[in-house]
Amino acid sequence: MHISNMDNNTDRHIDELIVRYPQLTVCREQISKAYLMLEQLYTQEGKLLVCGNGGSASDSEHIVGELMKEFKLKREVYKDQADAMKSIDIEMGTILAQHLQGALPAITLTGHSSLTTAFMNDCMPELVFAQQVNGYGTKGDILLAISTSGNSRNVLFAAVAAKSKGMKVIGLTSIRPNRLKELSDVCIQVPETETYKIQELHLPVYHCLCMMLEEHFFGKY
After folding, report:
1. At what angle do helices 28-43 and 10-20 cross, to 10 degrees?
2. What is d(CA 60, CA 109) in angstroms, rounded to the nearest whole number?
3. How far is CA 90 from CA 75, 76, 98, in A?
4. How far apart are CA 144 and CA 136, in angstroms?
5. pLDDT value for 4
6. 3-state SS track over 77-145
7. Can you tell me the distance from the alpha carbon of 68 to that of 61, in angstroms, rounded to the nearest whole number?
8. For the stretch 153-169, what's the b/e string if a residue is b when 16 or more beta carbons lie within 10 angstroms of its beta carbon?
9. Which residues contact 152 (CB under 8 A, 6 or more apart)?
10. How far apart are CA 6 and CA 22, in angstroms?
């Protein structure tokens, strides 16, 4: 992973987030800690696994989309990769170099319908995310576990599986006491208790994290 020379503007992005959503002031420290964990993850060429149920499953897909392609900034592939592609095939390599976008590796555990339905049918359905963590996860990776209740069993099993493999866990949940917080290295607990209101605050939090990561790894002066 190549890193831009741009200064880290973590505080500026979080300041802007809190101006728009003042209730997230209580989450400031945890958002900052989560970002630093993710920055280190990608500096060390690790990957992010993301899971959740229902609306949180949609959020998982959304997060992966923001990380794996351009979000706000132009993400050209790095010169050494562009040169390598052109050396393999000048025509296709040139097209690839012009149109491929830089990516931060992230995998949602809510897709893969053949795998997940087979596992849920043949085995224990609550372990469907944990099974994927077991297959994809390696030491140093991070699981972003999303649960509005903080007690979704399949998410909790995934967190335990992740920690057993030497991964870190970032929780995204609500202000209510919950088990996910206990299993997380960092837990962002938005100050709401109703599901739809929790989800309404989860989105700007993960957008902020994605913007900060994109700026750090792909920003230019």
Report:
1. 140
2. 8
3. 21, 18, 12
4. 14
5. 40
6. CCHHHHHHHHHHCHHHHHHHHHHCECCCCEEECCCCHHHHHHHHHHCCHHHHHHHHHHHHCCCCCEEEE
7. 11
8. ebbbbbbebbbeeebbb
9. 52, 53, 180
10. 27
How many Å apart are CA 61 and CA 58, to the nearest integer?
A: 5
Residue for token pair 């700026």:
215
Give DSSP secondary structure letters for 150-184: S--HHHHHHHHHHHHTT-EEEEEEESS--HHHHH-
Please state, in angstroms and rounded to a whole number, the distance separating the CA atoms of residues 65 and 209.
13
Enter the tokens of residue 81.
């990769």
Identify the residue whose tokens are 């995934």: 158
Residue 18 and residue 25 in contact, taking contact as beta carbons nearer than 8 Å: yes
pTM of the model: 0.93
Regions of the chain where pLDDT drops below 50: 1-7, 221
Given a contact cutoff of 8 angstroms between Cβ atoms, the answer to whether 211 and 69 are in contact is: no
What is the pLDDT at residue 195? Answer: 97
φ/ψ of 152, rounded to 5, equals -65, 120
CA angle 59/62/65 to nearest 5° reads: 155
When computed from its CA atoms, the radius of gyration of the chain, rounded to whole angstroms, is 18
Q: How far apart are CA 94 and CA 151, in angstroms?
A: 49
CA 162, CA 145: separation in Å to the nearest integer?
10
